[in-house]
Amino acid sequence: MQKVKINGYCTIEEEKRFKSISNEKNLGDMALVQQDEVWSMRRLVNLHKMKRPIGKIIVNIDLCKDCRFCIEFCPPNGVLEESKDVNSKGYHYPVVKPGKELDCVACRMCEKVCPDFAITVVSEEYITYDKYYGVSRHAHSAELYKKDLDKLLRPGIHFLDGNTAVAEGAITAGCRFYAGYPITPPSNEIAEYMSYRLPQVGGKFIQMEDEIGSIMAVLGGASAAGGVKSMTATSGPGFSLMQEEIGLGSMLEIPALIVDVMRAGPSTGIPTLLGQGDILQAKYGSHGDYEIVAYLPANPQEAFDFTIKAINMAEKYRVVAIVLSDQLVGHMYGKVRVPEFDEIEIVERPKPTVPPPDQYLPYDSRYLVPPMAIAGTGYRANNESLTHTDKGYPTTDRDASFKLVMRLVRKIRENEKEIAEWEEYMLDDAEYVIVSYGSTSGSVRRAIKVLRAQGYRVGMLRPKTAWPFPGWVVENLASRGVQKFVTVEVNMGKMYHVVREFSRGVPVEHIPYAPPGYIPDPDYVINNVRKVIEG
Amino acid sequence: MSVEAEVTTTGVKVELPKSYEDIKDLIRIDRLPHIWCPGCGLGILLKLLARAIKNSGIPVEKHVIVTGIGCTGRLGGYLKLDAYHVTHGRAIPFAVGLKMANPELEVTVVGGDGDILAIGGNHFIHAARRNDDINVIIVNNFIYGMTGGQYSPTTPKGAKTTTSPYGHYENPFNVPLLAYAAGASYVARWTVLHQNELYQSLLEMFKVKGFAVIEVLSPCIIYTDRNAMGDAVDLMKILRERPVIDHNANLADLEIDFSMKKIILGNFVKRERPISYG
Ligand SMILES: Cc1ncc(C[n+]2csc(CCOP(=O)(O)OP(=O)(O)O)c2C)c(N)n1
Ligand code: SF4
Ligand code: SF4
Ligand code: SF4
Ligand SMILES: [Mg+2]
After folding, report:
1. What is the CATH number of the domain that holds A318?
2. Which ligand sits nearest to residue A77's alpha carbon?
3. Which architecture, in CATH terms, is B34-270?
4. Are residues A66 and A160 in the same domain?
5. pLDDT tens, A471-503?
6. Are A79 and A121 in contact (CB under 8 A)?
7. Interface of chain B toward chain A, CB-CB under 8 angstroms
8. Where are the domains of chain B?
9. Confidence class of residue B170 from pLDDT cuts 50, 70 and 90?
10. What digits encode the pLDDT tens for the residues A279-311?
């Protein structure tokens, strides 16, 4: 038997090959950066191996009548153009645009839409993504970071997984401190990636001894000099451990970000597969009254965007913000557009306007969101986890307790319309509304297309923020005469309860037994929604 | 020649060689092959522990294994005993509860360096301080194996891991010194290669009244890979060539640094201390 020597994620032979390629300066995706500089990091995606077909167009020139179908309907768009020449009948015919020879993915759409048998596609060759993308579009390439701009991910189009998108989003939003504890699914692409990226941008990374330590370090980091934006990432078991400290963060009003890449539970569950079971815990997990903000990204682009928004909301309202991603979103690769930096809104926490130390009240109830003094700037603030007065002194006083806790919840409740975000998909005339979020919404979107084609008037409400939940949208739909709400989520019914709270008596059904770990596929959604509709 | 042939849950027909006749009723053959990587030391410990349990003089029904989460945490599931696979870091307090509720049980915790010393570190020192009458086997592979190679509390300074891509900044625990200082009654360190010594030490551990700790050094390819140490065989070679056995070693000298030049093994501590609730 041949002995294959496994070294990391590739054989020794492959390793040698990678190393030799990486010496050619112009290449630089993760695989190569690893080999070159920090080769102890894992290879995230092997762009040298991942390949796709390249199509070759064969046009039977004289059959073409220049309807332009092939040109217009080519999915990668812009592969084909009209020829300068004309055929024997005087028609222009399709040719591959110069420079686009590698862009044809051999999908055969042109062939399928051609009314005249004039175009066919053959595909005998493959291209690996490193060659196709070239340096500028490599995921994770050191070349990607604009050196003059603090080594941030360059504006433009990138190809990232959801977890890396979270990490880059956080860095873009100004996060410079990460404390975490390894856990599947987020530990590799977020924690490991941050251990590599943060030092490049002047930030710091630490791996703590557990998740309680991690969230505490994050709260400390966020309180320290300069108000370093701080984050941690975890999954179900770690998120459960962090709950007490979410209460602390809410009480001390420390802006912090927790990314929970949800996996299948309960308990250790299925670490490598998705779940959406932490929705309620995110808001109700700690004791007492407090409010948080939580986003629900459905793809890598949203993972990037929502991480920035979550950090902004944390800063703006001085709350703990949560990105409730899930395993599928985290591991999904997709296009991420990074806007020009001046187009990205970055929010900073309110800063004290009074001079230190005596006039400053750390929990000044004249504000909804009091200015935040940073440790070490002379304000000498008493930050108190006991119920406290405006001055931060412990109290058992009735009024003080009321004033404080009311403010903690009002911060978010009074601004819920401003914070909440959602997508309405084919809702205009919908009689049946599917409520879905995160990775699951992809299946639902597909299912709705099919159900619509079959004559069912269905649509989707996709909350982009779990908290605050856009309850008024549900209320409006209910009073508009929607027949039924159906929740599709990878759990036994969580957002289901939230929808019921606002459904004004309109029945809500949960698609049963979406087993944690497995995304309900479109067929499953279609069949079950049909059952719900037909009763 | 085989004594046992079973089509397992993994669909593979597994035959245990005759030499395992003695422990075949202690291994869940229907779960083989196990999940561990080629060259992982955990399989070796599994066999040895099964044998020690068999020959401990304590009826096998009285043995209970408690494990947390990690590659090491999977070990209990391959032993045909009462076994509890609990949450990450929490095996020790669960074991303490078992022992308190029924002192007749022989309770053994098997956990990784991360499981026992990071997330479970607090439970570890407090169980040692109270001198709870349980056994703890810490499989030190210098890394978080299960989650793919992040640094652990025993990762030596300078080592590259997935979360220390520029080399680890922190100092590792000296495990035997920590166990002793916290109050353990019995402290030993062996490697999975030191079969006879480790076996004797396991037997001894079952006899000890009080908190007994054995640190077992074990190769993990996730660690060797990141540090250009070759594969598991190369680390096993280090574990064969470098160790010095010194039962009377100064505990303060037991730290293992990145070079692995000095690896001291032995049965370092055996002392009488009052045990908790005993
Ligand atoms: C609360 C919680 N946090 C994190 C994890 C993820 N996790 C699983 S195993 C493990 C570390 C395992 O390392 P170690 O204990 O050294 O065992 P090994 O795999 O090396 O044997 C971690 C962090 C978890 N399961 N639960
Ligand atoms: S095969 Fe697809 S990608 Fe290629 S030219 Fe035709 S439509 Fe465009
Ligand atoms: S990762 Fe390491 S400890 Fe886990 S099975 Fe593989 S070799 Fe063993
Ligand atoms: S190569 Fe390893 S697993 Fe295979 S027989 Fe030898 S020791 Fe056992
Ligand atoms: Mg370990």
Report:
1. 3.40.50.970
2. 2
3. 3-Layer(aba) Sandwich (3.40)
4. no
5. 999 999 999 999 999 999 999 999 999 999 999
6. no
7. 38, 69, 85, 87-89, 114, 118-119, 121, 144, 147-151, 153, 160-166, 221, 225-227, 231
8. 1-33, 34-270
9. very high
10. 999 999 999 999 999 999 999 999 999 999 999
| CA B214 to ligand 5 centroid distance, Å | 14
The verdict on A10 and A117 lying in the same domain is: no
Helix and strand tally (H, E) in chain B?
8, 10
Half-sphere exposure of B42 (CA within 13 A, CB side): 29
| B114 CA → ligand 5 middle, Å | 6
CA-based angle B169:B174:B179, to the nearest 5?
Answer: 140
Per the domain annotation, does A133 fall within a domain? no
Assess if residue A188 is contained within a domain.
Answer: yes
Place of tokens 């009826």: B59
Of A189-193, A321-325, A402-406, the poorest mean pLDDT is in A189-193
Together in a domain, A425 and A501: yes
Same-domain check for residues A401 and A428: no
Q: Are residues A245 and A161 in the same domain?
A: yes
Is A210's Cβ below 8 Å from some Cβ in B?
A: yes
Q: State how far Cα B215 lies from the chain centre.
A: 6
State the ipTM, two decimals. Answer: 0.76
Q: Which residue has the tokens 């007065």?
A: A389
Which of A328, A338, A366 is CA-nearest to residue A350?
A: A366
Look up tokens 């903690």; give the residue.
A408
Q: Is B214 helix (H, G, I), strand (E, B) or coil?
A: strand
Q: How far is it, in rounded angstroms, from Cα B75 to Cα B36?
A: 10
- Contact in structure between A519 and A493 (CB atoms under 8 Å): no
List the domain range (segments joined by +) for residue A23. 1-50
pLDDT at residue A157 in the model: 84
CB A327 within 8 A of CB A311: no
**Nearest Cα to A482, choosing from A522, A414, A442, A533?**
A533
Side chain identity at A367, as an amino acid letter?
A: Y
Nearest to A163 by CA among A188, A136, A129, A195: A188
Q: How far does Cα A217 stand from its chain's mean position?
A: 24
Kindly report the protein residue whose alpha carbon is nearest to atom 12 of ligand 1. B70
- Whole-structure pTM over 0.90, yes or no? no
Q: Which 3 state secondary structure label does DSSP give A311?
A: helix
CB of A194 within 8 A of CB of A307? no
